Amino acid sequence: MPKLRLRTALARAAGLFGLLCAHSVLAAPQSPAVEPAFAPDVSVAACNYVEWTRGVNYTLGTIVRYPPNGQFYKLVNVGSNGSDGTDPTISTWYWQPTTCDDGGPAPGGFVVSEAQFNRMFPNRNSFYTYAGLIAALRSYPNFAKDGGDTVARQEAAAFLANVHHETGGLVHIREQNQANWDHYCQPAGTCGGKQYYGRGPIQLSWNYNYSAAGNALGLDLLNNPDWVATNAAISWQTALWYWMTQRGGASNTPHQAMVNLRAFGETIRAINGGIECNAGGIGHQQMLNRVANYRSFTSILGVPTGNNLEC
Length: 311
Fold this sequence. Notes:
Structural class: alpha+beta
Radius of gyration: 19 Å
Shape: globular
Strand order of the largest sheet: 2-3-4-5
Number of domains: 1
Helix content: 25-40%
CATH topology: Lysozyme
Strand content: 5-15%
Distance between the termini: 22 Å
Number of strands: 6
CATH architecture: Orthogonal Bundle
Number of helices: 10
């Protein structure tokens, strides 16, 4: 069942529509309810790495780049014979996701500078680093790149405007209402005590979304959901995964909405349209707030807003 339908159904059942709107959804960092197998390395520093090769027994501390997904992993445990040639996307005992600056720029260069990013988010939580965003861009090199410079800047503004709204200006990381933390499991009772509540720049919720995002990114998020709240690059990756690949209740992904339709309003529909895209409905003001963010960010980036701003 699509993400937004289930989110709306949950809200109706609990009478909590407001909890699914804007920054009331997420809260500042707290002690995680479910600890990941290892606390992921959140640094994005220059490092030495090797291309992972099946069957090679690596030494403790080795950083590898896994060719199928381009992600970096650090060997944190070894057996009697080294790493035992284990695939880093499968074994979370041997391998820990990490970030690594391989010396190259973000794919094609990012249209938002760090100074502009800081202007957009002057009160952001230190967890949401610009370096983490740049590292995450390698997973989706077409983000803010298709359609020419103006469209690229409009897409970056649209993405960051929605992120601003979802997190209260990149302040909040986890869903605020802890009473809901156990509710995001389908079928109910099958999640083995793990919690799949909203985390990250675009609230990633429900076990099937953690599974799908993890599969796309080459990360075991189903078994380690809290990586989304403890590793900046992974957190940004999940937001980009949703932006680039998911439609929610819309006919287009947010990426397609900006590149093909030039319609910021359609990005809102893809993210939370079930609540915010009904004129006069409970989420109408939330939609207007997203539009205000978008206007502000396109101004910072020096491009026009385009048309079709509301959904």
